[in-house]
User: Fold this.
Amino acid sequence: MTCRTLPRRPAGFSLLLLAVVLVPAVAPAGGDQDAFLAGYVTAVVEREFDVLPVAVVSRAGSVRIELPDQPSIDHDRVRTVVSAIRAVESVEVVVAQPTVEEDVPVDPDAPAAEVATAEEKGTELLPRGHLLEPLVADPRWPRFAADYQYYIDDSELGSAGAVSLGGEFPLLRWYDVGGGRLQLGLQGGIFALFDLDADSTDLINADYRIGLPLTYERKRISAMLRLFHQSSHLGDEFVLRDRVERINLSYEAVDALFAYRPHDVVRFYAAVGYLFHQEPSDLDPWWVQHGIELTSPKAMLGNVVRPFMATDLQYHEETDWDVDVSVATGVQLESPRLETQKIRLLLHYYKGRNPNGQFFERNIEYTGIGIHGDF
Assistant:
């Protein structure tokens, strides 16, 4: 059995440790193999959760991880990520017991960086990862995606291509805020729709969104307060072809979203939003949203393929609170070393108010297939 008890080290040490354990060398055996796995697990936990384990014990594929006593650390999530490592057969995650040490005088002239962790410092500039994971089935969540859509009984569209480019960029994170973490980010996205039946694959509509999300996470609860702007534009070729009248659609909006994950398998969420400074000015401002996401507890094919299913329901005052249904199912490609980066191959169904801004007054129904990436 090999036990690695780790003192606090500078942040750069984690990068060195990760580089060492990822060197493609001949796999060691016996005690060396246990030491190799313990080091690998230590690097993965520190990278994915921004926390340095107090100790990692490895013996013949069984791993015991001792973590600091911090409420913000999700032990179930740590267990899930480490279990996905190929050489790991079982995982135990515990809170490290405090040790009794002799009182050591503290040098008042010592630099604060030598006696405080990132969490104790309270803030972090340009942190890694999201405090609220992207909504899988929300058709207007900023992400990188490409979809083929087939419209059902539609007089104007048959086959269409939908492309989105966007995501969220964390700017500043505060630790130990009410026992959790608070983060300010920048969120942006471009959503474009193309007519695949047209000779030149005409651009039909493009929506542009930019926003500032303020996100909070504590254990299994996440919340987001978001202020954003969106504007909508018709494609030039589409306008020349069909001579349609453009709607000058733009607005600012604010929404609040709450998500709860009682288990790694399921997540529930609900949101309410309000438009202001909208054009046309007579747009009804309110909408509500809720959904559920189911994720397989086990990954397949070398721990990189995980099935999922998600449903998103939205109700807009503008359409008399009729429901917009969005359903997605497929597989998620992932890596335990890149836990926040996921690629999804999915089948998609949508029925309801047209999410493409220039056509918000129309109802549509389509099925599709696509690839979505959240980073």
About this structure: Residues 2-29, 109-120 have pLDDT under 50 and may be disordered. The radius of gyration is 24 Å. The CA atoms of residues 268 and 292 lie 5 Å apart. The domain at 124-374 is CATH 2.40.160.40 (Porin).
